[in-house]
Amino acid sequence: MSRVRLVAAGGFIAVLAAALVVVLVRGSQTSAERRPSAQLSPSPTPSVEVASVPEGDYPTPANTGEATSEDDFERIFREIAAFRTWLYRNPHPELASLIYDPGCDCYDLFTTQLQALSGHDARYDDAGTQVHSIAVAHRVDDYMVLLEVVTSHGMQRVVDSEGQVVETGVGWETRQEMYTLVRGADGRWRVVHVALGGPAEENSAR
Q1: pTM score > 0.85 for this model?
Q2: 8 A C-beta contact, residue 106 and residue 194
Q3: Domain boundaries, the chain
Q4: Other Cβ atoms within 10 Å of 91 Cβ, number
Q5: Model confidence over 50-91: pLDDT tens digits?
Q6: Cβ-defined contacts of 70-75 (< 8 Å, 24+)
Q7: CATH for 3-44+59-204, among 3.40.50.300, 3.30.160.70, 3.10.450.50, 3.50.50.60?
């Protein structure tokens, strides 16, 4: 695969890597600083303004409803993660607001990635992010929660409209990620903040 072809393809994985660096820099905190008791405080019911989404044949994520247990949040986050993977494989930037709060930096970064893919008629064609474990680090109130998530990603692969590989990446080993979710007025839980942590032990998954 030529370097010229990769540049012409838009450097999708490079865009993703750069986005992760931005998230890491903006969300970089020590473990103690990440503890929600020092970072999060109860707030009124969030009023997330969701852009109208077009009707179409896509798997609407079930990241909705009241959550009273860790199992509830595991289900909700896995719905978010599965839909995020689907969007990488079927880039529709206009659907990002179903899982990301439009006021979040992570929303802007994610939509930028999807726009880069759709603009070049490209998509990810790999196994996607693997979610190994999800734990509630802190439940702020009925509308906000901090989750500690362990993920990994194997070889990354981007293909064009004909299924030809235009870019590959190495992915990442198991690592810890901290996600803050808020429940909007429409009852849907969305990611409002992401912070990347260090490597995680594989046996920490449950």
Answers
A1: no
A2: yes
A3: 3-44+59-204
A4: 23
A5: 555 566 778 899 999 889 999 999 999 999 999 999 999 999
A6: 70/134, 70/135, 70/136, 73/134, 73/136, 73/145, 73/147, 73/181, 74/134
A7: 3.10.450.50
